[in-house]
Amino acid sequence: MADLCAQDKINEHYPRNSPVHMMCWMNFWTSLCYLAYLFGFSSTGYDLISFLLRHPDAARDVLLFCLCGAFGQLFIFLTIKSFGSLTNTLVCTTRKFFNILISVVVNGNPLLPMQWVAVFMVFIGLITSTLIKSKSRFKYKKA
Fold this sequence. Notes:
By secondary structure, the protein is an all-alpha fold.
């Protein structure tokens, strides 16, 4: 399988690693890089801590944002481990597509004609991808 992306190669090479294990190690190394920048190379980290201590409501919002991000990230890693990175990309694109459509309908946000063309192209791409996938599954079951 030469056409696998990095996540698929990692999952293939280390099949016993769980999505949680992968997510924790990725976040560990990312956190080290962020901490080195925030506290080692600039004073931004100290300013952030000072601000959050002065504004507990903002600290609560930051904490909730981080928890929601971690929860969403867990679903991303589970999807990649269970179905592959291509399916994950399709899920993310579909979610963003429907978020835009819901925003247009609920909030009355207008789209320009070229933006409607882009929405139509995404919709056609999703339908085409689904049809191709279902045909390949049908051929696999038939054989």
